[in-house]
Amino acid sequence: MGKTNFTKVEESLAQGLHKMEVERLLNEADKASGKPPPPKKETSPELAEEKKKLIKDLELNINRLKAKDSKIFEKLKVKRSTVQKFTENPQKLSEEDWKHAAILLKRTETLLKEMVPDKANDKLVEDEQTRHLNKRFNVNEKWLPLN
Predict the structure, then answer these.
(1) Fewest beta carbons within 10 Å, which of 34, 57, 64, 93?
(2) Region (Disordered) spans which residues (predicted)?
(3) 107 is in which domain, residue-wise?
(4) Within 13 Å, how many C-alpha atoms sit on residue 90's CB side?
């Protein structure tokens, strides 16, 4: 195994530390001269876990429904742009938008239950057993090409 060269990593680390030290010294000089500190950069507020889960569930449900039916937005009676607004930038949503997203999530869940019926595990096992009643083990179910 070859030797790993860490010189580039060490150089970038040294540059970062030097930059931090310069910023610290500039801030101290500003405090000593009486200048007000520069305004801090605005960071995006963190979303609550419930809201993150709501957006992820909404996106997952819509993707699953799109796989089943391409005209899903007509069935949900919602525009594609509103759904994109919910999923692309959830930090900028208002409370009214969050309520609308929750209602849309409930609609997608009901439509998903209608389109994809949830079978019980016992029923699935029974269906597979009847389907594979005379099947041999490790046999491909696809048609073989006629060459």
Answers:
(1) 34
(2) 24-49
(3) 67-112
(4) 19
